Amino acid sequence: MDGNQKQRQSHKKERQQPENIFSAMVVYGFLSYENGCVSIPNKELMDKFNEMLLKEPSMGYVHQLAAVSSKMLKATLAGDSRKVAEILEFAHDTESPLLSYNSESELTVLITLVYLAARDSYRIEREDKAGIGYVDFIFYPETDYKADAIILELKVDHTAEEALRQIRDKRYALKFEGKLGEKRKYSGRIFGVGIAYNKKTKEHTCKIEVLREAENREA
User: Fold this and answer.
1) How many other C-beta atoms lie within 10 A of the C-beta of residue 140?
2) Disulfide-capable partner of 175 in 51, 106, 130, 145 (CB 3.0 to 4.6 Å)?
3) What's the domain range around 100?
4) What are the two backbone dihedrals, phi and then psi, of residue 198, each rounded to the nearest 5 degrees?
C-alpha cells in the first residue's frame, strides 16, 4: 500500500469514528435519532449535558455561552437591569451579522441564546397566550413551583418602560394564577422584564419589576 492509499485510509477512519460513536450511543439509548437529527432523549441526560457545558472549558464557545447565560439569569432574578442590558448588548454586537443587526427576529434569537442556562430549571415558551394577548417569552419554573417566574417582552424602537407597560396592561401575569377554581401552581415571585433596542443609537435598555410577590404558604 503506497503513501497516498494509507493517507486515504486514515482520513476514512477519522470520518467514520464520530459516526460509529454516535451510532453506538443511539443503540445504547444515550442519544435518539429521528428524521436525520440526533438528540438527547430525556431530562436526566440533558441535565448531565448542561452540567458538563458549565464545568468543561474544553467545550469552548458553548461552555462560554452557558457561563454567560447563567450570569444573565442571575442578573434578571436580582433585578439588575443594567447588567441584563450590558450582557445583551455584548451578545448582539458579537453574535449578530451586520446585515441583520437591526432585525427583531435576530434579537429574539439572541434572547434565546443568552437565557440558555435558564432551560435547566425553566420551561421557556415563545409567543404564549397569556392574559389578553401573547407574551414574547414566558419562563415557567417547572423544577420548583416556589421559584421565581419571568415574563419578558421585547421592543424595537420603543422604550423598556413601554415593554413593561404592555406586560402589565395585557395582564400576562394571569398565566401564573391558574384557572377559576384551581389552586395556584406557581407561588414564587413574578418578574416582568422589558427589553428595548434603539436602531438609531444601537442602545439596549432594560427595566425589571416584580409583578407579584411570593405567596406565603404559611399564612
Assistant:
1) 19
2) 130
3) 56-212
4) -105, 115
Looking at the structure of the chain, the number of domains it has is: 2
How far is the C-alpha of 21 from the C-alpha of 27, rounded, in Å? Answer: 10
Per-residue pLDDT tens listing for the chain (219 residues): 554 554 445 444 444 445 555 565 555 555 666 766 656 666 665 665 555 555 555 544 444 666 788 899 999 999 999 999 999 988 888 766 654 666 777 788 888 888 988 988 999 999 999 999 999 999 999 999 999 999 999 999 999 999 999 999 999 999 998 777 778 899 999 999 999 999 899 899 999 999 999 987 544
Question: What's the predicted TM-score (pTM) here?
Answer: 0.70
Co-location of 190 and 113 in the same domain:
yes
Residue 46: CB partners within 8 Å, gap ≥ 6? Answer: 40
